[in-house]
Structure formats: C-alpha cells, structure tokens
Specification:
75 residues, 3 helices, elongated, 0% strand, mainly alpha
Length: 75
C-alpha cells in the first residue's frame, strides 16, 4: 500500500524550501562564528567601504583579533 499523504504537493515543496533555507542560514551562522571568517569578511568589505565604514571594519578586525586561537602560531 502507498502511504497516505495529508499535505498537498505545494505544501511539501514549501516545507522542503523552508528546510533548505534554514540549513543555509545555520551554515552561514556556523561560518560567521569563527573569528577568522569575520576578519576575512571585514577585509573583503574594506575595498567597497567609505571612511565611516572603514573605521567600523577596522574596529571589528581589532575586536575579533583578540578571539583568535594563537596556540599553534609557532608552527
């Protein structure tokens, strides 16, 4: 016997889309949780920023530089 579905095709597509978007957001949050990635994004944004935004970028770089793991820096 085939399983009985109570949701329509459109609803199943919507649930699949919402699940995919949630996974993409979770992956982005996981990547942004790493200080190295945040610093990388700040440096990438600097080429497009004006003076006020450049100051915010440099402040962000300084803030996240304190969170870096320097335990293996001697290698």
């Amino acid at each position: 016997m085939h399983p009985y579905y109570t949701t329509s095709f459109a609803d199943r597509e919507m649930f699949a889309y919402n699940d995919r978007v949630a996974k993409q957001k979770a992956e982005l949050e996981r990547v942004l949780a790493q200080p190295e990635q945040r610093i990388k994004f700040c440096f990438e944004f600097l080429s497009h920023a004006d003076e006020g935004m450049a100051k915010k970028c440099y402040d962000g770089i300084a803030k996240y530089s304190d969170n870096l793991d320097w335990s293996e820096a001697h290698y």
